[in-house]
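Hi support team,

I've been running sequence recovery on a batch of backbones for a student project. Most finish fine, but this one hangs at about 90% for roughly twenty minutes before it completes. I'm not sure whether the input is malformed or the queue is just slow. I've pasted the C-alpha cells below so you can try to reproduce it. Let me know if you need the job ID as well.

Thanks,
M.K.
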C-alpha cells in the first residue's frame, strides 16, 4: 500500500504583499537585525506583524508533516540552519526572499497553527478543507509526541518539576536560539531578481507557478488564483473596487464547487463524484489555468495584458462559470454529464484529458449550435466512451493532456457524427480504428489487471463498486443518458401548456437541458 504523504499548508502564516514598484531603495534607517528569536515570531511581537512574502511567492505548502517536525527539532537542538534572506521595503515590511518554509514552520509551532489555527482561519475566512485540517492535526500530534508544544516549553521556565533532561536543555536554550538573517540591499527590482535567482537554484518553482508569477496581474492569472482557493486566501484582486472583489470571490467559489466538489474519497463508494478528482496543488493550479485559457480562447498567458479594473477578470470568470454549469449543475442549460462516465476510468482514476476534451467539445457545440444533435445520440455516445476508453491513448500521442484536447474533441465529434448516420454503436469503434484518423488506436478489453496479491487494491475496490453501481444509475427519460446523482430535473410528461397536471403519473426524471430546451 502506498503511504499517503500529508503536505502541510502553512501559507497563511506569512501574509503576502506586493512589492511597491515605485520604491527606489530598500529602507535601511538604523541597523537591520541579524537574528530572529522565537519571541519575534509570536503574534504579539513587534517583528512578526510586519513580516511579508512577495505576492508572487508560491504557496507555502511543499513540506510534509515529517519535514516540518524535523526542522523544528533541528532548531531546538541548535543544529546548523541556513540563514533566512529578507529585504526591507520603505514601508518597513520585511519581505522573505528565501526561507519561507523555515520561518513558517517555526511560526506554526510557536502559534500552534499548522493550517487550522487562528491565523489560518482568519486568512481563509474559516473555509479550510478537510485535507488541510487532517494534515494540521497529524502534524500537531506528531510534534507534541516527539518534541512538545511551544506552550509546554513556556511552562517549564516557571516549573521546577522533574522533566526529561533533553527537554529541559531545549527549554533553557530557547531564550538564546534564533535564525540567522541575511539582507538584500537595493530596490524592489533587485529584491525580485534575487528571489527568482535563489528560488530557482534551491528548489525550482513548478512550471505552472512560473507562468502565474509572470502573468500575476493578467485577468486569466487572477481568475485562476481566485478559482484555485475558492475565492479565499490572499486577494490577488484587492486593487479592484469592493463590489468587483465580491463578485470575483462569489463566482470563483461557484466554479470551484462545480468542478471540485464533493471531495473524492478512495476507494470509491458513491457515484456522487466531482468533475475533477483529487489533484496535487501544482496539478490543480495547472488545470484551472488551462481551463480559464481554453474557455476564453487565450493562447498565451500574457495575451490580454494587465487588468487594472477587474472587468476583464470578471468576464473570464463568467465564461468559465457558464461552461462549468453546462457540464454539471442545476442550471437550466446543464447537460448533466455524469462524472464517472465522462471523467473517470473504470477503476475510479480521474482523466484530465477527458476534462479538457469535454470542455473543448462543449465550446464547439455552443459555436455550432449542436447540443440537440448530441442529445439525440447521447445514450449510445455514453455507451461507446465508457465501453472503449480511448482518451489515454489519444493523450499519449501528444506531449500533454491539454495539447491533446482538440484531438479528443474531434474523436468525440466523430462518434457523434457516426451515430447520427445510424451506424450501429457496436461497429463505430472498429471503423474509427480502421480509418486511422487518430493514429494507431487499439481496442482493449476491460478486464482484471494482473496481480499477485490476495488483497483487493484500492483500484479494484473502486472498480467493483463502479461496475455494480452503474447498473442502477437513473437515466433521463428524454435522451436516455445517465443522470448524475445531485443534479436532475422533474419534467411533465404531458406539458403544462398541453394541460398536463402535477401528478406522480405525469412526472419523469430528466436532465435540465433536456427538460427546458431539447424537449421544447
Amino acid at each position: 500500500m502506498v503511504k499517503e504523504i500529508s503536505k502541510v499548508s502553512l501559507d497563511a502564516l506569512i501574509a503576502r504583499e506586493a512589492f511597491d514598484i515605485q520604491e527606489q531603495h530598500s529602507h535601511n534607517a538604523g541597523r537591520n537585525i541579524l537574528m530572529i528569536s522565537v519571541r519575534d515570531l509570536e503574534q504579539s511581537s513587534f517583528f512578526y506583524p510586519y513580516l511579508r512574502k512577495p505576492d508572487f511567492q508560491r504557496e507555502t505548502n511543499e513540506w510534509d508533516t515529517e519535514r516540518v517536525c524535523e526542522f523544528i527539532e533541528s532548531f531546538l537542538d541548535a543544529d546548523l540552519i541556513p540563514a533566512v534572506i529578507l529585504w526591507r521595503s520603505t514601508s518597513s515590511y520585511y519581505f522573505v526572499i528565501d526561507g519561507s518554509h523555515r520561518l513558517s514552520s517555526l511560526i506554526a509551532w510557536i502559534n500552534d497553527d499548522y493550517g487550522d489555527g487562528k491565523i489560518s482561519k482568519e486568512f481563509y475566512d474559516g473555509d479550510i478543507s478537510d485535507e488541510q485540517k487532517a494534515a494540521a492535526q497529524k502534524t500537531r500530534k506528531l510534534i507534541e509526541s516527539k518534541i512538545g508544544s511551544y506552550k509546554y516549553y513556556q511552562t517549564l521556565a516557571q516549573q521546577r518539576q522533574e522533566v526529561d533532561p533533553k527537554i529541559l536543555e531545549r527549554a533553557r536554550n530557547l531564550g538564546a536560539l534564533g535564525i540567522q538573517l541575511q539582507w538584500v540591499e537595493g530596490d524592489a527590482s533587485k529584491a525580485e531578481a534575487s528571489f527568482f535567482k535563489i528560488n530557482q537554484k534551491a528548489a525550482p518553482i513548478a512550471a505552472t507557478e512560473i507562468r502565474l508569477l509572470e502573468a500575476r496581474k493578467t485577468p486569466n492569472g487572477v481568475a485562476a488564483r481566485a478559482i484555485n482557493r475558492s475565492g479565499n486566501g490572499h486577494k490577488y484582486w484587492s486593487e479592484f473596487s469592493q463590489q468587483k472583489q465580491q463578485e470575483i470571490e462569489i463566482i470563483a467559489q461557484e466554479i470551484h464547487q462545480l468542478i471540485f466538489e464533493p471531495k473524492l474519497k478512495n476507494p470509491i463508494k458513491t457515484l456522487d463524484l466531482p468533475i475533477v478528482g483529487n489533484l496535487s496543488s501544482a496539478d490543480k493550479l495547472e488545470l484551472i489555468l488551462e481551463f480559464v485559457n481554453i474557455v476564453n480562447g487565450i493562447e498565451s498567458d500574457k495575451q490580454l495584458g494587465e487588468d487594472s479594473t477587474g472587468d476583464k477578470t470578471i468576464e473570464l470568470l463568467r465564461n468559465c462559470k457558464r461552461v462549468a454549469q453546462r457540464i454539471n449543475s442545476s442550471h437550466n442549460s446543464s447537460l448533466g454529464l455524469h462524472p464517472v462516465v465522462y471523467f473517470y476510468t473504470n477503476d475510479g482514476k480521474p482523466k484530465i484529458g477527458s476534462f479538457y476534451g469535454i470542455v473543448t467539445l462543449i465550446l464547439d457545440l455552443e459555436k455550432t449550435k449542436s447540443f440537440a444533435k448530441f442529445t439525440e445520440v447521447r445514450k449510445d455516445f455514453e455507451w461507446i466512451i465508457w465501453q472503449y476508453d480511448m482518451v489515454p491513448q489519444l493523450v499519449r500521442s501528444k506531449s500533454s493532456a491539454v495539447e491533446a484536447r482538440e484531438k479528443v474533441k474531434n474523436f468525440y465529434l466523430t462518434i457523434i457524427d457516426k451515430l447520427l448516420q445510424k451506424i450501429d454503436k457496436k461497429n463505430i469503434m472498429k471503423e474509427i480504428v480502421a480509418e486511422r484518423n487518430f493514429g494507431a488506436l487499439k481496442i482493449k478489453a476491460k478486464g482484471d489487471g494482473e496481480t499477485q496479491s490476495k488483497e483487493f487494491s484500492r483500484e479494484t475496490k473502486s472498480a467493483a463498486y463502479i461496475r455494480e453501481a452503474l447498473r442502477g444509475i437513473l437515466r433521463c427519460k428524454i435522451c436516455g443518458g445517465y443522470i448524475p446523482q445531485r443534479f436532475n430535473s422533474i419534467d411533465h410528461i404531458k406539458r403544462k401548456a398541453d394541460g398536463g397536471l402535477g401528478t406522480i403519473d405525469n412526472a419523469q426524471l430528466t436532465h435540465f437541458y433536456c427538460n427546458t430546451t431539447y424537449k421544447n
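--
Follow-up from support: It reproduced on our side and the slowdown came from queue contention, not your input. Residues 21-27 have pLDDT under 50 and may be disordered. No action needed from you.
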